[in-house]
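Instructor's aside before we start: the two examples that follow are unrelated to each other. I chose them only because their records fit on one page, so don't look for a connection. First example below.
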Amino acid sequence: MNRKTFSALLLVLSHFGCSWFVHAKSVQGPKRVACVGDSITFGAAIKDRAKNCYPAQLGRMLGEGWDVANFGVNGATLLKKGDKPYWKQKAFEQAHAFEPDVVIIKLGTNDSKPQNWKHKSEYVADYLDLIEGFRKLESKPQVFLCYPVPAYPGRWGITDKVMKEEVMPRLDEVAKKSGCKVIDLYSALSDKKAMFPDRVHPNAAGASVIANQVASTISGKQK
């Protein structure tokens, strides 16, 4: 095969290769959304959790073209030195293996506990590491951060004051450094104490508020 023929063959293969790539992108499956978080994401204390937790409701709100998965872990912390670091949970590995297109991170509630918040100086760095880990995936997901929901006023060492006055400002710093958008779940559920039967975990109605905020942010459509 002479050089001219070889070059022509490469041109043909390149043409079909590009056509295949464009076709593959056009027929790809639904957009995958990984909901990363603690018990509030998991749906603790919600009746019929599998159906009524916020990721499940989010999936229904978004509809066809979206595949939403729940990677929430009860008691999980963002802090690596917390009493139950999300980093060490099976869900952490599963969320990465899911190769999401969108990642929703809602961690910080359990970090407000005194035994965890003593490591607050590491919160920003740990959060940036978590974001970077997802951004390195082949799927190159868009990452959204969530303010923690309010507590009324708290329980099990969880403190609303710490979340509002200390966790959220640090999360703003993370957002600024990472370029990630923040979904304000705190404001969305403020003055909705009735949706928090145990003063920390929202019920199904509260989970619906969360799902609506997330859905409207990532899809651009108010549900």
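Example two begins here.
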Amino acid sequence: MNEYELLDSGHGRKLERFGKITLDRPCAQAVWNPSQPDRWKQADAFFTRKQGLEWRGRDQLPNSWIAQVNGVRMKLSTTDFGHLGVFPETREMWDWIRQTLTTATRQRSEPLHFLNLFAYSGGATLAAAQGGAHCCHVDASKGMVQWARENAELNGLKEHPIRWIVDDVNKFLTREIKRGRRYDAILLDPPSFGRGKGGELYKIEHALLETLQLVKKVLSQQPCFLYLTSHTPGFTPIVLKNLIQQLLDQGQLDSGEMLLTGAGSAFPVPSGTWARWQA
């Protein structure tokens, strides 16, 4: 079941339905004209960045609500930055992770260990858990890790083996190397700019190479996949592919754009990039 839908886009905006709530939010890539101008009247709320950050109609929305996105139930809530607690352009990746881990677990007859770095509200972590993997979810934001734990409970995964870690990613990886912990499948979605648990500065153009070198050291001897995504302008699919190609060989390497897709006349909206290595 999927309760997310891209209804339309254009004029620098996107119109999306999340369960029973329809939202009109900025989308810089959507430079074309809307396909269905009349549909935009359906919006329950509108977010703009033109004169500061502002929601219009937010007071008419519930404080939070639940929507199922590609098989994962997610708690959603409007944040001051216009986010909701899910990036729906990643939902096809969730499907791939769930299916790949399900298949790999059957082949190995034992659970695989999945590591999600910069893990946000946990959609990919929960898809991996649904695929049978034992998971480790790492994010520097205590609030986001708590949000992810609530999502786990919504999906009946409260008792599933998931380690919930609030930490700076590079520091965490350095400690895991020393502990000898290894992971069969790893996902990372590094931010363009961020702060670690202790206020550590993370700028992708300087820190990503170090992160990837650490990631390589925590891969198991029989790795299943490494998945790298980015929302940073300039980090094209080829850039991500080159980074992984320097790190790993003897596997299948694919890359592409993350797309927001909808039915009918809704144009697909480029919303990030990805590259993945699979053994």
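The helical segments are 91-108, 123-130, 142-154, 169-179, 204-218, 237-247.
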